[in-house]
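If you are new to this repository, start here. Below is one unmodified record pulled from the training split, so you can see the exact layout before writing a loader.
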Amino acid sequence: MSVELNHTIIHARDNRESAEFFADLLGLEITSEWGPFIAVELSNEVTLDFATVPADRITPQHYAFLVSEDEFTAAYEKIKARGIEHWADPRRQQPGEINTNDGGRGVYFLDPSAHAMEIITVPYGGFPA
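And here is the target side for that same chain:
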């Protein structure tokens, strides 16, 4: 068996709010609730398990997601329609814009717990030839 990521826990101020924000934005489903976790499953069967923790214990993390062009368009339309602050770059120097790195499209934004989220249509370095 090869090594694969199965799940990761994402600390949140409110696990339901964060799971619903993420699932709705990317057209995904909340798949289960178990103990303190609310899970959102990605297309490769990896789950993001959102857990409520005290706000002072949340260390902002970065999560990047590779999406199709159609998924990017749909998510970006939601980002704009909801007035979600977003940037073309991780240093937040290009507000309200997207990037076209590696021939694709990408955007950075914060989730409700201030994690830096990124969606891209082409992986860094481009797709293998």
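Two things worth knowing about this chain: Helices lie at 15-26, 69-81. The longest helix spans residues 69-81.
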